[in-house]
Amino acid sequence: MDRGISRALVILGLLLAVGMSSAALIMGLQVRHIGSGKQSITVKGLAEKPVKADRAEWSISFAVTGKTLPETLKNLRETRPALDGFLKTQGFSADEISSGGENIGPNMITEENAAGQMRSVQRGYAGNQTLIIKSRALDKMQAAAAAIPDLLASGLPISSNAPSYLVSQLEEVKMSLIADATKNAQLRANEFARTGGVRLGNMRSAAQGAFYILAPGASVDSAEYGGTYDKGTIDKTARVVVTIEYNIEN
């Protein structure tokens, strides 16, 4: 009786051992299969090149006040010719200049009343108008912007920002950089693969990072989502980064 039980236990043990070995073999094959499916390398590719602005935009505003609305409008229209004359002297043609509407509204100021409280009150009217200059003559735009302090010194009530120097063919620039950055990523991936003793397989995924138009020598803020666009310089640097994942093969 004991001998029969012992024999049954031995057989059961053998069956369990064989079952466990088979399960281990199957699981091992699955792990290797899954692992091979996930074997990849992810690299970043960089490309940059110098670009040059080929057009510029500039806005100049002037503002006046008056006791009445008609007086304010009169002052606004009497001020405009001086600014037109300045732009003509700087060499801008009529088709390079566009103007916004004549804006007139209450002239609100903050003053202290008899009780020592600050309040907002109307003192006549205020008017303003903005001129937009667009030109491909960048040297002319630079010269005009440099002459603004003299115009202010003459007493003309104007305000202006620095001109914006822009690149027209941004999409073409971006596409050429993506192609170069992709080649750069592949070179890096091949070097990693060669060092690791494996072969580089097909591309699995690719993503473009931020696109930058930078002033020469400017640093890049990697946290700047979507990139940056420097508009203050004529000579610029275009830069793009791509992230690419490749399969690797043993």
Tag the structure with descriptive keywords.
250 residues, alpha+beta, Translation Initiation Factor IF3, Alpha-Beta Plaits, 3 domains, six-stranded antiparallel β-sheet, three-stranded antiparallel β-sheet, 9 strands, 40% helix, 37% strand
Describe this structure in words.
The protein folds into three domains: 1-38; 40-53 and 167-250, Translation Initiation Factor IF3 (2-Layer Sandwich), CATH 3.30.110; 55-166, Alpha-Beta Plaits (2-Layer Sandwich), CATH 3.30.70.2970. 40% of the residues lie in helices and 37% in strands. The chain is built from five helices and nine strands. The longest helix has 36 residues, at 2-37. The two termini are 57 Å apart.
CATH architecture field of the largest domain = 2-Layer Sandwich
CA-atom Rg in angstroms: 36 Å
Q: Briefly, what CATH class of the largest domain?
A: Alpha Beta
> What percentage of amino acids are in beta strands?
35-45%
User: Would you tell me the structural class of the helices and strands?
Assistant: alpha+beta
Kindly state the number of beta strands.
9
**Number of discrete helical segments:** 5
Helix content: 25-40%
The helix/strand order is: HEEHEEEHHEEHEE
Stretches with pLDDT under 50, minimum 5 residues: 8-12, 14-36
- What general form does the structure show? elongated
**Major sheet characteristics:** 6 strands, antiparallel
CATH superfamily of the largest domain: Protein of unknown function (DUF541), domain 2
CATH topology label of the largest domain: Alpha-Beta Plaits
Overall mean pLDDT stands at 85
First CA to last CA: what distance? 57 Å
Q: Oligomerization state of this entry? A: single chain
